[in-house]
Structures are given as structure tokens and as C-alpha cells.
Amino acid sequence: MSSRGARGVEGSDQSTDDGERSRAFELKFLLDASTAQRLRAWAIAHLTASPHVASMPDHASVASTMYLDCAQLTPTQQASRKSKSKSKYRIRRNGDSTLLQVERSRSRGEMVATRACTIELAELACMRDAGNPTPWSGQWFHRRVQRLGLAPAAVVRYRRASYFADGVSGSCTLTLDDEIYAQPHSMWTWPNTDGSRRILESSTILELSFAAALPPLFKKFLAEFPQQPTPLSKYRAARDSFRRATLNDSNE
User: Fold this and answer.
1) What is the pTM of this model?
2) 4-251 domain in CATH 2.30.130.60?
3) Angle made by CA atoms 130, 193, 183, in degrees to the nearest 5
4) Which of 29, 48, 86, 174 is the most exposed place for a label (fewest CB within 10 A)?
């Protein structure tokens, strides 16, 4: 079984004013409703609910991610951007929090190195400026986004259940994302839910994240729930949904 890199779970390289850097492996799976229900029971029995969702129903909270892309650029500009960087840029928000996490993740073989930091919701407006001389926490992210010609392309909302366990090689996490909605969005503001479309109907995305070798606990899980990992992307699923909606509208 191959593994793919991921967001940081422990294993942080360092924490600086320019963001926290981390490395971790990640496996993704697409589950049907029945398998997802059985897996939730397994997670409750073998793992600990993450502190921020421990008191919530089903150990889940609403989260959303703003994805940045160069869709507004010309084909030549897009090709130039992609040749310079394989990094992914996105901004995450939990519920209605006024704190956002800006994040760049870059694949290096089977490992993904992530750099992230927290900014205030009001600071999102700073991303519109070509240059902002006043130092702020997201300045490193802003510089890269400007240089690559990136802009908001979509916002995906989902319900996330989160569990973790500690081991000798560091912490490992298991997340379950369902009730996934997406909408096109091209402004440096956080949108409301108007215009959202359900994607990946009746499916749940499972993510296993770990700092080093596959933990014994996750090996036990895969023995009980045989699954094949998939390079699933919420953003790609959202773009496919947008294209289908456009075709349907043009055919009416």
C-alpha cells in the first residue's frame, strides 16, 4: 500500500513568525454510508475525540476551506505557474471562528511538507493588496500568492469528526468528513452558504494522518475495514460539480 504525505500531526520541524512547518503521511479513503457508520463506532472505541469536538454530537463540527487557484489566468500564465510550484494553497476556517489558518502544502515524494499560520478573519482583506508594508502574520503566504497569481476559486464546507491517539512515533489522527457542499467563490471575503451545492453525495472522506510508519492501531483498522486509498480531492470534486452544473444549465 502506498502512502501520501499530509498536513502536520506532531512532527513539526519548527515554529517561527513565518508559520509552523510540519511533515506527516496521510492516507485518504472514500467510504459509503454503511462503512462510515461502522467506522465511527470503531473510532469511538479505539481513539480519543479531539478536544475541540469532544463535547459535540458525533464528535463533529462544521469546517470550511477556501481553495486558491489560477483559473483566471491565461493558459500561458497557468502553465508558467504550474511549472514553478506544485504547492497547494488554501485557507481553513472552523465554524464561525474569527481565526483562519492559511496553509501551503508541497509534495516531496510520499511526504507532504506543510507550512501554516493563523490570521484574523479581518486580515483576509490584506490579501487584496498588491503590497502591504505593514508586517502581519500572513505576510509570507501573501507574498507567494501574489507571486503565483493565485486567487480564491471555491469554498467547500463539510462536517468533520476528529479523533487522535498518541504513540511512540508521535500522534496520529483520524478524521471523517461528510455533508460536503461547495460553491464557486472569487473574492477575498468569506461567503455565506447561498449557492452551495452538495457534492460527493452519501459519501464520507476518511483521512488517516501519522508522523512516521503506519501505526499498529491503523494497521488494525485496515485489517478490520479493508479499504483502498484514493487521491481524492475536495477541490477537484467541487470543480467537477461546477462543470456539470454549467453544462446542465446550458442545456436547459
Assistant:
1) 0.84
2) no
3) 65
4) 86
